[in-house]
Design a protein that fits this description.
480 residues, seven-stranded mixed sheet, globular, 32 strands, binds CU-O-CU linkage, Immunoglobulin-like, binds copper (II) ion, 6% helix, mainly beta
Protein backbone atom coordinates (compact mmCIF):
# COMPACT_ATOMS: atom_id res chain seq x y z
CA UNK A 1 0.00 0.00 0.00
CA UNK A 2 1.28 3.46 -0.87
CA UNK A 3 1.76 5.87 1.95
CA UNK A 4 -0.98 8.17 0.62
CA UNK A 5 -3.49 5.28 0.66
CA UNK A 6 -2.36 4.28 4.09
CA UNK A 7 -2.99 7.79 5.40
CA UNK A 8 -6.40 7.86 3.75
CA UNK A 9 -7.29 4.54 5.37
CA UNK A 10 -6.05 5.71 8.76
CA UNK A 11 -8.26 8.80 8.48
CA UNK A 12 -11.23 6.67 7.53
CA UNK A 13 -10.70 4.39 10.51
CA UNK A 14 -10.34 7.32 12.89
CA UNK A 15 -13.69 8.58 11.55
CA UNK A 16 -15.23 5.18 12.22
CA UNK A 17 -14.06 5.32 15.81
CA UNK A 18 -15.92 8.57 16.37
CA UNK A 19 -19.14 7.14 14.99
CA UNK A 20 -18.65 3.77 16.76
CA UNK A 21 -21.09 2.52 19.36
CA UNK A 22 -21.11 4.05 22.81
CA UNK A 23 -20.48 2.31 26.09
CA UNK A 24 -22.43 -0.81 26.90
CA UNK A 25 -24.63 -0.82 29.99
CA UNK A 26 -24.25 -4.40 31.14
CA UNK A 27 -26.86 -6.52 32.92
CA UNK A 28 -25.91 -6.05 36.59
CA UNK A 29 -28.87 -6.43 38.93
CA UNK A 30 -31.23 -7.73 36.25
CA UNK A 31 -30.78 -11.49 36.74
CA UNK A 32 -32.48 -13.95 39.10
CA UNK A 33 -30.06 -16.84 38.39
CA UNK A 34 -32.97 -19.18 37.81
CA UNK A 35 -31.38 -21.61 35.35
CA UNK A 36 -28.96 -24.40 36.26
CA UNK A 37 -25.68 -23.90 34.39
CA UNK A 38 -25.56 -26.17 31.40
CA UNK A 39 -22.41 -28.32 31.37
CA UNK A 40 -21.39 -29.16 27.80
CA UNK A 41 -21.42 -32.97 27.54
CA UNK A 42 -18.09 -34.76 27.24
CA UNK A 43 -18.00 -36.41 23.84
CA UNK A 44 -16.86 -40.01 24.10
CA UNK A 45 -14.45 -40.87 21.32
CA UNK A 46 -15.00 -44.02 19.33
CA UNK A 47 -12.03 -46.38 19.65
CA UNK A 48 -11.62 -48.70 16.70
CA UNK A 49 -8.92 -50.86 18.20
CA UNK A 50 -6.31 -49.05 16.09
CA UNK A 51 -5.55 -46.75 19.04
CA UNK A 52 -7.06 -43.71 17.33
CA UNK A 53 -9.65 -41.66 19.22
CA UNK A 54 -12.38 -40.73 16.75
CA UNK A 55 -14.69 -37.78 17.35
CA UNK A 56 -17.71 -37.04 15.17
CA UNK A 57 -18.87 -33.43 15.09
CA UNK A 58 -21.88 -32.20 13.17
CA UNK A 59 -22.23 -28.47 12.53
CA UNK A 60 -25.93 -27.75 12.29
CA UNK A 61 -28.72 -25.25 12.64
CA UNK A 62 -30.93 -25.31 15.69
CA UNK A 63 -32.88 -23.19 18.10
CA UNK A 64 -32.54 -22.38 21.77
CA UNK A 65 -34.45 -20.65 24.53
CA UNK A 66 -32.38 -17.85 26.04
CA UNK A 67 -35.04 -15.43 27.32
CA UNK A 68 -37.77 -17.42 29.09
CA UNK A 69 -40.46 -18.67 26.73
CA UNK A 70 -38.80 -17.24 23.61
CA UNK A 71 -36.85 -19.02 20.91
CA UNK A 72 -33.72 -17.96 19.07
CA UNK A 73 -32.41 -19.50 15.87
CA UNK A 74 -28.92 -20.76 16.60
CA UNK A 75 -26.10 -22.88 15.28
CA UNK A 76 -24.51 -25.68 17.25
CA UNK A 77 -22.26 -28.71 17.13
CA UNK A 78 -24.01 -32.03 17.87
CA UNK A 79 -26.70 -29.88 19.48
CA UNK A 80 -28.54 -26.58 19.23
CA UNK A 81 -25.98 -24.18 20.66
CA UNK A 82 -22.21 -24.60 21.27
CA UNK A 83 -20.57 -28.02 21.06
CA UNK A 84 -19.53 -30.92 23.28
CA UNK A 85 -16.31 -30.84 25.30
CA UNK A 86 -13.59 -32.92 23.71
CA UNK A 87 -10.86 -34.46 25.81
CA UNK A 88 -7.61 -36.14 24.85
CA UNK A 89 -4.25 -36.93 26.41
CA UNK A 90 -0.74 -36.10 25.33
CA UNK A 91 0.41 -38.83 22.93
CA UNK A 92 -3.12 -39.67 21.75
CA UNK A 93 -3.83 -39.94 18.05
CA UNK A 94 -7.12 -38.12 17.39
CA UNK A 95 -9.24 -38.21 14.22
CA UNK A 96 -12.12 -35.81 13.64
CA UNK A 97 -15.07 -36.20 11.32
CA UNK A 98 -16.50 -32.70 10.95
CA UNK A 99 -19.75 -32.77 8.98
CA UNK A 100 -21.26 -29.52 7.82
CA UNK A 101 -25.06 -29.52 7.56
CA UNK A 102 -25.40 -25.73 7.99
CA UNK A 103 -26.21 -25.09 4.36
CA UNK A 104 -23.20 -22.81 3.97
CA UNK A 105 -19.45 -23.27 4.00
CA UNK A 106 -17.41 -22.79 7.17
CA UNK A 107 -14.33 -24.25 8.89
CA UNK A 108 -13.49 -25.65 12.31
CA UNK A 109 -10.24 -24.42 13.85
CA UNK A 110 -8.53 -26.02 16.86
CA UNK A 111 -7.47 -22.92 18.76
CA UNK A 112 -4.41 -23.63 20.91
CA UNK A 113 -3.52 -26.90 19.21
CA UNK A 114 -0.09 -27.72 17.83
CA UNK A 115 -0.76 -29.65 14.62
CA UNK A 116 0.04 -29.74 10.91
CA UNK A 117 -1.23 -26.65 9.06
CA UNK A 118 -3.56 -28.71 6.84
CA UNK A 119 -5.37 -29.93 9.98
CA UNK A 120 -5.61 -26.47 11.58
CA UNK A 121 -9.07 -25.57 10.28
CA UNK A 122 -8.15 -22.04 9.29
CA UNK A 123 -9.55 -20.18 6.27
CA UNK A 124 -7.77 -22.53 3.84
CA UNK A 125 -9.62 -25.63 5.08
CA UNK A 126 -13.19 -24.77 4.10
CA UNK A 127 -15.82 -27.42 4.71
CA UNK A 128 -18.51 -27.13 2.05
CA UNK A 129 -22.19 -27.79 2.78
CA UNK A 130 -22.89 -31.50 3.38
CA UNK A 131 -19.16 -32.33 3.26
CA UNK A 132 -17.21 -34.12 5.98
CA UNK A 133 -13.69 -32.90 6.76
CA UNK A 134 -11.43 -35.44 8.46
CA UNK A 135 -8.28 -34.00 10.04
CA UNK A 136 -6.10 -36.28 12.14
CA UNK A 137 -3.11 -35.57 14.34
CA UNK A 138 -1.17 -36.63 17.43
CA UNK A 139 -1.57 -34.58 20.60
CA UNK A 140 1.92 -33.32 21.37
CA UNK A 141 1.73 -30.59 23.97
CA UNK A 142 1.22 -30.18 27.72
CA UNK A 143 -2.16 -30.24 29.46
CA UNK A 144 -4.21 -27.17 28.57
CA UNK A 145 -7.70 -25.80 28.04
CA UNK A 146 -8.02 -25.28 24.29
CA UNK A 147 -11.11 -24.68 22.18
CA UNK A 148 -12.54 -24.99 18.70
CA UNK A 149 -14.49 -22.58 16.52
CA UNK A 150 -15.02 -21.67 12.84
CA UNK A 151 -12.50 -19.53 10.94
CA UNK A 152 -13.91 -18.77 7.45
CA UNK A 153 -12.27 -15.60 6.19
CA UNK A 154 -14.58 -12.62 6.63
CA UNK A 155 -17.36 -14.55 8.40
CA UNK A 156 -15.87 -15.77 11.66
CA UNK A 157 -17.87 -13.18 13.68
CA UNK A 158 -21.23 -14.47 12.55
CA UNK A 159 -20.36 -18.14 12.74
CA UNK A 160 -19.01 -18.00 16.29
CA UNK A 161 -21.76 -15.66 17.45
CA UNK A 162 -24.52 -17.99 16.24
CA UNK A 163 -23.10 -20.70 18.49
CA UNK A 164 -20.26 -22.62 16.92
CA UNK A 165 -17.66 -23.11 19.67
CA UNK A 166 -16.62 -25.76 22.14
CA UNK A 167 -13.90 -26.66 24.62
CA UNK A 168 -11.10 -29.15 23.98
CA UNK A 169 -9.34 -30.20 27.18
CA UNK A 170 -5.88 -31.73 26.96
CA UNK A 171 -4.40 -33.86 29.75
CA UNK A 172 -0.88 -35.09 30.34
CA UNK A 173 1.00 -37.25 32.82
CA UNK A 174 2.29 -34.45 35.07
CA UNK A 175 1.34 -35.19 38.65
CA UNK A 176 -0.58 -32.06 39.70
CA UNK A 177 -3.30 -32.34 42.31
CA UNK A 178 -6.04 -29.99 41.11
CA UNK A 179 -9.82 -30.53 41.14
CA UNK A 180 -10.54 -32.66 38.08
CA UNK A 181 -14.04 -34.12 38.27
CA UNK A 182 -15.59 -32.70 35.08
CA UNK A 183 -18.80 -30.82 35.72
CA UNK A 184 -18.52 -31.13 39.51
CA UNK A 185 -15.33 -29.43 40.67
CA UNK A 186 -13.68 -28.94 37.25
CA UNK A 187 -16.14 -26.76 35.40
CA UNK A 188 -15.97 -25.15 31.97
CA UNK A 189 -17.28 -21.57 31.80
CA UNK A 190 -17.69 -20.43 28.20
CA UNK A 191 -18.54 -16.76 28.60
CA UNK A 192 -20.16 -14.84 25.72
CA UNK A 193 -21.84 -11.47 25.54
CA UNK A 194 -24.89 -11.23 23.31
CA UNK A 195 -27.41 -8.76 22.10
CA UNK A 196 -30.80 -10.37 22.49
CA UNK A 197 -33.86 -8.80 20.90
CA UNK A 198 -37.06 -8.27 22.91
CA UNK A 199 -38.56 -11.33 21.22
CA UNK A 200 -35.58 -13.46 22.27
CA UNK A 201 -33.54 -13.70 19.08
CA UNK A 202 -29.79 -13.19 18.73
CA UNK A 203 -29.30 -9.72 17.30
CA UNK A 204 -26.61 -9.76 14.61
CA UNK A 205 -25.70 -6.11 14.62
CA UNK A 206 -22.00 -6.25 13.78
CA UNK A 207 -21.35 -2.55 13.25
CA UNK A 208 -18.90 0.06 14.54
CA UNK A 209 -15.35 -0.35 15.70
CA UNK A 210 -15.86 -3.54 17.71
CA UNK A 211 -18.38 -5.48 15.71
CA UNK A 212 -20.63 -6.50 18.53
CA UNK A 213 -20.75 -5.66 22.22
CA UNK A 214 -23.74 -7.20 23.96
CA UNK A 215 -25.53 -6.35 27.18
CA UNK A 216 -26.51 -9.93 28.02
CA UNK A 217 -24.28 -12.85 28.99
CA UNK A 218 -24.54 -16.53 28.23
CA UNK A 219 -22.41 -19.04 30.13
CA UNK A 220 -22.14 -22.37 28.31
CA UNK A 221 -25.17 -21.15 26.39
CA UNK A 222 -27.21 -20.69 29.58
CA UNK A 223 -29.00 -17.40 30.19
CA UNK A 224 -29.41 -16.29 33.85
CA UNK A 225 -27.39 -19.21 35.30
CA UNK A 226 -26.48 -20.60 38.70
CA UNK A 227 -24.12 -23.41 39.61
CA UNK A 228 -24.40 -25.56 42.70
CA UNK A 229 -21.03 -25.93 44.42
CA UNK A 230 -20.51 -29.24 46.25
CA UNK A 231 -16.78 -29.16 47.08
CA UNK A 232 -14.58 -26.82 49.11
CA UNK A 233 -12.66 -25.82 46.00
CA UNK A 234 -13.71 -25.58 42.38
CA UNK A 235 -11.52 -25.23 39.33
CA UNK A 236 -13.17 -23.15 36.62
CA UNK A 237 -11.88 -23.30 33.05
CA UNK A 238 -12.65 -19.81 31.78
CA UNK A 239 -12.97 -19.13 28.08
CA UNK A 240 -13.93 -15.77 26.67
CA UNK A 241 -15.72 -16.81 23.47
CA UNK A 242 -17.19 -13.35 22.88
CA UNK A 243 -16.82 -11.48 19.63
CA UNK A 244 -15.09 -8.47 21.17
CA UNK A 245 -15.83 -7.96 24.83
CA UNK A 246 -12.94 -7.86 27.30
CA UNK A 247 -14.06 -8.87 30.81
CA UNK A 248 -12.56 -7.93 34.17
CA UNK A 249 -13.74 -10.96 36.11
CA UNK A 250 -14.07 -11.11 39.86
CA UNK A 251 -16.51 -11.94 42.62
CA UNK A 252 -19.17 -9.72 44.18
CA UNK A 253 -17.42 -9.98 47.57
CA UNK A 254 -13.98 -9.37 46.01
CA UNK A 255 -12.68 -12.68 47.27
CA UNK A 256 -9.27 -13.85 46.20
CA UNK A 257 -8.92 -16.73 43.77
CA UNK A 258 -5.90 -18.40 42.20
CA UNK A 259 -5.01 -18.57 38.53
CA UNK A 260 -3.43 -21.98 37.90
CA UNK A 261 -3.23 -22.03 34.09
CA UNK A 262 -3.27 -19.73 31.09
CA UNK A 263 -4.06 -20.53 27.45
CA UNK A 264 -1.37 -23.07 26.72
CA UNK A 265 -0.91 -24.76 30.08
CA UNK A 266 -0.28 -24.65 33.80
CA UNK A 267 1.62 -21.86 35.52
CA UNK A 268 4.69 -22.55 37.66
CA UNK A 269 2.67 -21.73 40.78
CA UNK A 270 -0.85 -20.51 41.57
CA UNK A 271 -1.16 -16.73 41.16
CA UNK A 272 -3.53 -14.99 43.63
CA UNK A 273 -5.80 -12.29 42.18
CA UNK A 274 -9.17 -10.72 42.76
CA UNK A 275 -9.62 -9.31 39.25
CA UNK A 276 -8.71 -11.09 36.05
CA UNK A 277 -8.82 -9.54 32.61
CA UNK A 278 -9.75 -11.97 29.84
CA UNK A 279 -9.98 -10.96 26.18
CA UNK A 280 -11.61 -12.91 23.33
CA UNK A 281 -9.95 -16.26 22.69
CA UNK A 282 -8.01 -16.30 25.97
CA UNK A 283 -8.41 -19.03 28.58
CA UNK A 284 -7.51 -19.08 32.25
CA UNK A 285 -8.06 -21.81 34.80
CA UNK A 286 -8.81 -20.55 38.29
CA UNK A 287 -9.35 -22.29 41.63
CA UNK A 288 -11.89 -20.74 44.01
CA UNK A 289 -12.54 -21.74 47.64
CA UNK A 290 -16.07 -21.95 49.06
CA UNK A 291 -17.70 -22.14 52.51
CA UNK A 292 -20.78 -24.30 53.14
CA UNK A 293 -24.10 -22.60 52.35
CA UNK A 294 -22.63 -19.42 50.93
CA UNK A 295 -23.66 -17.72 47.73
CA UNK A 296 -21.52 -15.44 45.62
CA UNK A 297 -21.88 -13.99 42.15
CA UNK A 298 -19.14 -14.12 39.52
CA UNK A 299 -19.16 -10.72 37.87
CA UNK A 300 -17.42 -8.63 35.24
CA UNK A 301 -16.52 -5.13 36.32
CA UNK A 302 -16.52 -2.21 33.94
CA UNK A 303 -13.20 -0.95 32.62
CA UNK A 304 -12.37 2.45 31.18
CA UNK A 305 -12.80 1.72 27.48
CA UNK A 306 -15.77 0.89 25.26
CA UNK A 307 -14.53 -2.64 24.75
CA UNK A 308 -14.59 -3.48 28.46
CA UNK A 309 -17.41 -1.23 29.65
CA UNK A 310 -20.51 -2.40 31.49
CA UNK A 311 -21.07 -4.18 34.79
CA UNK A 312 -22.24 -7.75 34.41
CA UNK A 313 -23.58 -10.48 36.62
CA UNK A 314 -22.32 -13.70 35.10
CA UNK A 315 -23.06 -16.69 37.30
CA UNK A 316 -24.35 -17.26 40.81
CA UNK A 317 -22.42 -19.88 42.77
CA UNK A 318 -24.51 -21.47 45.49
CA UNK A 319 -22.65 -23.75 47.90
CA UNK A 320 -24.35 -26.78 49.44
CA UNK A 321 -24.69 -27.14 53.24
CA UNK A 322 -22.06 -29.87 53.20
CA UNK A 323 -19.05 -29.61 50.94
CA UNK A 324 -16.81 -32.53 50.04
CA UNK A 325 -13.18 -31.76 50.86
CA UNK A 326 -10.97 -30.80 47.90
CA UNK A 327 -7.19 -31.16 47.66
CA UNK A 328 -5.15 -28.29 49.10
CA UNK A 329 -3.98 -25.89 46.45
CA UNK A 330 -0.49 -27.08 45.46
CA UNK A 331 2.36 -24.64 46.15
CA UNK A 332 4.00 -25.52 42.87
CA UNK A 333 2.31 -26.68 39.68
CA UNK A 334 4.75 -27.44 36.87
CA UNK A 335 8.39 -26.65 36.16
CA UNK A 336 8.55 -23.97 33.47
CA UNK A 337 11.83 -23.25 31.78
CA UNK A 338 12.63 -19.54 31.46
CA UNK A 339 11.41 -18.12 28.13
CA UNK A 340 13.96 -18.24 25.31
CA UNK A 341 13.47 -15.23 23.06
CA UNK A 342 15.67 -16.24 20.15
CA UNK A 343 17.62 -13.78 18.01
CA UNK A 344 15.18 -13.48 15.12
CA UNK A 345 12.93 -10.46 15.72
CA UNK A 346 9.68 -9.84 13.86
CA UNK A 347 7.70 -6.67 14.39
CA UNK A 348 3.94 -6.31 14.06
CA UNK A 349 2.32 -2.91 14.15
CA UNK A 350 -1.34 -3.28 15.06
CA UNK A 351 -3.34 -0.62 13.23
CA UNK A 352 -7.08 -0.02 13.15
CA UNK A 353 -7.88 -3.18 11.21
CA UNK A 354 -4.52 -4.09 9.75
CA UNK A 355 -1.13 -5.48 10.70
CA UNK A 356 1.93 -3.58 9.46
CA UNK A 357 -0.40 -1.53 7.26
CA UNK A 358 -1.63 -4.58 5.38
CA UNK A 359 -4.88 -6.46 5.26
CA UNK A 360 -5.05 -10.22 5.15
CA UNK A 361 -4.51 -11.72 1.72
CA UNK A 362 -5.18 -15.45 1.44
CA UNK A 363 -2.61 -15.61 -1.38
CA UNK A 364 0.22 -13.86 0.43
CA UNK A 365 2.61 -15.55 2.85
CA UNK A 366 3.72 -12.85 5.27
CA UNK A 367 6.30 -14.69 7.34
CA UNK A 368 8.42 -17.79 6.79
CA UNK A 369 9.58 -19.52 9.97
CA UNK A 370 12.11 -22.36 10.22
CA UNK A 371 10.83 -25.42 12.07
CA UNK A 372 11.52 -25.43 15.80
CA UNK A 373 12.43 -21.74 15.83
CA UNK A 374 12.52 -19.59 18.96
CA UNK A 375 11.74 -16.02 17.94
CA UNK A 376 11.02 -12.65 19.46
CA UNK A 377 7.78 -11.15 18.20
CA UNK A 378 7.25 -7.52 19.05
CA UNK A 379 3.73 -6.07 19.00
CA UNK A 380 3.16 -2.33 18.75
CA UNK A 381 -0.42 -1.26 19.13
CA UNK A 382 -0.99 2.14 17.51
CA UNK A 383 -4.83 2.27 17.41
CA UNK A 384 -7.55 1.11 19.85
CA UNK A 385 -7.46 -2.04 21.94
CA UNK A 386 -6.58 -5.29 20.21
CA UNK A 387 -5.37 -8.70 21.11
CA UNK A 388 -3.06 -11.03 19.28
CA UNK A 389 -3.30 -14.75 18.71
CA UNK A 390 -0.81 -17.00 16.94
CA UNK A 391 -1.81 -20.42 15.66
CA UNK A 392 0.32 -23.52 16.31
CA UNK A 393 2.70 -21.89 18.80
CA UNK A 394 3.06 -21.38 22.48
CA UNK A 395 4.52 -18.12 23.66
CA UNK A 396 5.59 -16.37 26.82
CA UNK A 397 5.09 -12.68 27.43
CA UNK A 398 8.56 -11.18 27.98
CA UNK A 399 7.45 -7.66 28.80
CA UNK A 400 4.62 -5.16 28.47
CA UNK A 401 5.88 -1.61 27.86
CA UNK A 402 9.25 -2.72 29.18
CA UNK A 403 7.91 -4.14 32.45
CA UNK A 404 7.77 -7.81 33.37
CA UNK A 405 4.25 -9.24 33.10
CA UNK A 406 2.31 -10.15 36.25
CA UNK A 407 2.56 -13.78 37.43
CA UNK A 408 -0.64 -14.94 35.75
CA UNK A 409 0.57 -13.64 32.36
CA UNK A 410 4.02 -15.22 32.73
CA UNK A 411 3.02 -18.76 31.78
CA UNK A 412 2.40 -20.44 28.43
CA UNK A 413 -0.06 -18.59 26.19
CA UNK A 414 -1.30 -18.30 22.62
CA UNK A 415 -3.40 -15.11 22.84
CA UNK A 416 -2.60 -11.84 24.57
CA UNK A 417 -4.48 -8.60 25.17
CA UNK A 418 -2.67 -5.54 23.79
CA UNK A 419 -3.84 -2.26 25.35
CA UNK A 420 -4.02 0.91 23.27
CA UNK A 421 -0.50 2.22 22.70
CA UNK A 422 1.20 -0.78 24.31
CA UNK A 423 4.33 -2.57 23.17
CA UNK A 424 4.45 -6.25 24.06
CA UNK A 425 7.34 -8.59 23.38
CA UNK A 426 6.71 -12.31 23.05
CA UNK A 427 9.11 -15.24 23.17
CA UNK A 428 7.52 -17.55 20.61
CA UNK A 429 8.16 -21.27 20.32
CA UNK A 430 7.31 -22.91 16.97
CA UNK A 431 6.74 -26.57 16.25
CA UNK A 432 8.08 -28.92 13.61
CA UNK A 433 5.19 -29.59 11.23
CA UNK A 434 6.76 -28.28 8.03
CA UNK A 435 4.54 -27.37 5.08
CA UNK A 436 5.78 -24.55 2.84
CA UNK A 437 2.42 -24.40 1.03
CA UNK A 438 -0.12 -24.23 3.86
CA UNK A 439 -0.09 -21.22 6.15
CA UNK A 440 -1.03 -20.78 9.78
CA UNK A 441 -2.65 -17.52 10.91
CA UNK A 442 -1.82 -14.80 13.38
CA UNK A 443 -4.47 -12.19 14.04
CA UNK A 444 -6.45 -9.97 16.33
CA UNK A 445 -9.07 -12.14 18.05
CA UNK A 446 -11.62 -9.34 18.13
CA UNK A 447 -13.58 -11.16 15.48
CA UNK A 448 -14.70 -8.12 13.53
CA UNK A 449 -11.09 -6.97 13.26
CA UNK A 450 -10.06 -10.42 12.10
CA UNK A 451 -12.89 -10.46 9.53
CA UNK A 452 -11.85 -6.98 8.36
CA UNK A 453 -8.42 -8.35 7.56
CA UNK A 454 -6.38 -7.85 10.73
CA UNK A 455 -4.68 -11.15 10.09
CA UNK A 456 -1.49 -12.45 8.53
CA UNK A 457 -0.14 -15.82 7.43
CA UNK A 458 3.05 -17.71 8.21
CA UNK A 459 4.43 -21.04 7.05
CA UNK A 460 6.82 -23.35 8.86
CA UNK A 461 9.58 -24.74 6.64
CA UNK A 462 12.66 -26.94 6.85
CA UNK A 463 15.45 -24.72 8.24
CA UNK A 464 17.59 -23.42 5.37
CA UNK A 465 14.74 -23.45 2.83
CA UNK A 466 13.17 -20.13 3.88
CA UNK A 467 14.12 -18.43 0.59
CA UNK A 468 12.24 -20.99 -1.48
CA UNK A 469 8.85 -19.64 -0.37
CA UNK A 470 7.56 -16.92 -2.73
CA UNK A 471 7.39 -13.64 -0.82
CA UNK A 472 5.59 -10.39 -1.51
CA UNK A 473 7.65 -7.39 -2.59
CA UNK A 474 8.98 -5.38 0.40
CA UNK A 475 6.26 -3.88 2.57
CA UNK A 476 5.65 -0.16 2.73
CA UNK A 477 4.10 1.61 5.67
CA UNK A 478 5.98 -0.81 7.91
CA UNK A 479 7.36 1.97 10.08
CA UNK A 480 10.51 0.21 11.28
CU1 LIG B 1 -9.36 -18.70 17.87
CU2 LIG B 1 -7.28 -17.98 14.51
O1 LIG B 1 -8.36 -18.36 16.19
CU1 LIG C 1 -6.20 -20.26 16.79
CU1 LIG D 1 -8.26 -5.77 16.94
Amino acid sequence: MRRRDFLALTGLLAGLALTGCGDVEGNAGSLTFRNPLRIPPLLDPRADGDGVKRFALELRQGSAEFLPGKRARTWGINGDYLGPTLRARRGDRVAMAVTNTLGEATTLHWHGMRLPARMDGGPHQMVQPSETWSPEWTIDQPAATTWYHPHPHGETSEHVYRGLAGMFILDDDEDVDLPSDYGTDDVPLIIQDKKITADGRLDEDFGGTWGLLGDQILVNGTYDPHFRVTTTRVRFRLLNASNAHVFHLGFADDREFHVVASDAGLLAKPAPLNRLRISPGERFEIVVAFEPDEQVVLKAFSGDETIDSGDYDILKLAAAARLAPSPELPRDLVALTPPVAGRKVRRFRLGGSNINGQNMDMNRIDEVVPAGARELWELDNVTYEHNFHIHEVRFRVLDIDGARPPEHLSGPKDTVFVPDGARIRLAVEFGHHVDPKTPYMYHCHILKHEDNGMMGQFVIVEPGTEDEVPRPSPKTGHGH
